[in-house]
Write a structure and sequence with these properties.
With 447 residues, the chain is an alpha+beta fold. The protein has helices spanning 2-21, 29-39, 41-62, 123-190, 196-231, 245-251, 268-288, 338-404, 410-444; strands at residues 24-27, 67-76, 82-86, 99-103, 108-121, 238-241, 294-307, 320-330. The chain has two domains: 24-63 and 122-292 and 333-444, Outer membrane efflux proteins (OEP), CATH 1.20.1600; 68-120 and 296-331. The chain starts with a helix and ends with a helix.
């Protein structure tokens, strides 16, 4: 008995813990987009790329600012290196052809030093500063592109969930109607007023509806999990969507919003292509800067000490001061035309980037015209599908009345039902198409 109580308590605790771990969220589409822009995995890494680019920019800047380095060197000689001396330098009366040896140095030596260096002029450094700004701008534009991609994905997945949920409601309604029709048909068949084929046709239609319903139930679960991942949530978190598919479609119908001239400069892909072209231009400029001289200076300051015993920590240890100033001027003179070859390569790469930018501009303009045409077409399809659905509902309703009164065949009634189901699916698809095509158009205009 005691063991059962312990197991029950443990199970209860695990259930409570699971409920605590499962978060609950509720989003409109705009709220979902804003949440994803902060928590999506790609958005987080894109923000980190910008921070890394800022640090890279400062690294480049710091290369031209004063640099201070300090060091401490210690050396101990176990056996001195001997130097040879020819003749009788140390013994005037000795053999002039003899070789004497002498050792220089002390057993211990220490050197404490500091160096201040400063770049005075370098053309490549100036270009590098300009390139670092372009480098940062590239990642900022990449973040905007990532944000646009996230907006599109959230909108698509949000709409897919609404589509699946709306479809479930329609299929459940159709199923209930068919089950009622099947019951009535069976009773009528028992009384010998209709053929068995009529009952079987309704059974076939009902089986098809059940299969579609089961598939849609699985689809809505997958769609929600895709949305959760895009939002940066755990797939086990509870997410509810507060907007309706019809309302969302109405918000995205606007034929006047994109009637103005398309400004390709607002497109983020064009801006990234411009970044690439600018990088190639600066690389070309950097290669030309290699013809310029460079000038740098450094100042060294320090102390050194020598002793046959390790006495460097003693107060009476003698430390010798030294200091010097150095200036370095580098003048490129002749490289066997190697520099010229590099410059020509950079020039060609820059010209290619300009060609690619022109191509990108034309392709983006074409994409805009295509996206705009697709969007206008989906609005027309939405209006047509909405009208067709109303007609299909009226036809199916009339056929159902006629069928019950024996004025219509089972084939005509079944055909009307299939026509209605097809109209329902077309209407739902037209709504999601309006939302997705509007999102694709806004993505091109960077809205």
């Amino acid at each position: 008995m005691k063991q059962k109580i312990i197991i029950t308590l443990l199970l209860f605790a695990s259930i409570i813990q699971a409920q605590k771990l499962e978060e609950k969220y509720s989003f409109t589409l705009e709220q979902a987009i804003e949440f994803a822009l902060q928590n999506n995995y790609k958005a987080i890494n894109a923000s980190k790329d910008i921070e890394s680019a800022k640090q890279k920019k400062w690294e480049t800047t710091a290369a031209g600012l004063p640099q201070i380095n300090a060091g401490l060197d210690y050396s101990k000689n176990f056996v001195f290196t001997l130097q040879g001396v020819s003749g009788n330098a140390f013994n005037p009366g000795g053999d002039p052809n003899a070789v004497s040896t002498i050792a220089f140095g002390t057993k211990n030596s220490m050197n404490a030093r500091a160096t201040l260096s400063q770049l005075i002029f370098d053309g490549s450094y100036i270009v590098a500063l300009q390139a670092s700004k372009t480098y940062l701008q590239f990642y900022q534009n990449s973040k905007l592109k990532t944000d646009n991609d996230i907006r599109e994905m959230v909108t698509n997945y949000y709409g897919n969930v609404l589509l699946a949920e709306e479809n479930i409601q329609i299929l459940e309604k159709n199923k209930a109607t068919l089950e009622k029709n099947l019951f009535e048909a069976k009773e009528t068949f028992k009384n010998g007023l209709i053929e068995e084929e009529t009952v079987e046709q309704i059974q076939i239609t009902l089986a098809s509806i059940n299969s579609s319903l089961n598939n849609t139930l699985r689809l809505v679960d997958i769609s929600k999990k895709l949305l959760k991942i895009t939002l940066g949530l755990d797939i086990e978190d509870n997410v509810s969507l507060t907007e309706k598919l019809d309302d969302l479609t109405s918000k995205n119908i606007s034929l006047t919003e994109n009637t103005g001239d398309f400004n390709v400069n607002q497109n983020i892909d064009f801006q990234i292509a411009e970044n690439f072209r600018e990088q190639r231009r600066l690389e070309f400029k950097a290669e030309k800067a290699t013809y310029l001289p460079s000038l740098a200076a450094n100042f060294n300051f320090g102390y050194n000490a020598f002793s046959n015993t390790f006495s460097f920590t003693n107060q009476n240890q003698n430390w010798n001061n030294f200091s010097n100033l150095g200036i370095s001027l580098n003048l490129p003179v002749f490289s066997s035309f190697g520099r010229k070859a590099k410059i020509q390569q950079a020039k060609i790469a820059f010209e290619q980037a300009e060609t690619q930018l022109t191509e990108a501009e034309q392709m983006i303009k074409l994409q805009y015209e295509s996206a705009k045409s697709d969007y206008e077409f989906t609005i027309e399809q939405y209006a047509t599908s909405k009208s067709n659905l109303k007609l299909a509902e009226r036809i199916e309703n009339k056929q159902q009345i006629k069928f019950k009164e024996g004025l219509s065949t089972s084939f005509e009634f079944t055909e009307a039902q299939r026509q209605l189901y097809s109209a329902q699916q077309s209407y739902l698809q037209s709504m999601i198409d309006v939302i997705n095509k509007k999102t694709a158009l806004d993505k091109l205009t960077n809205k």
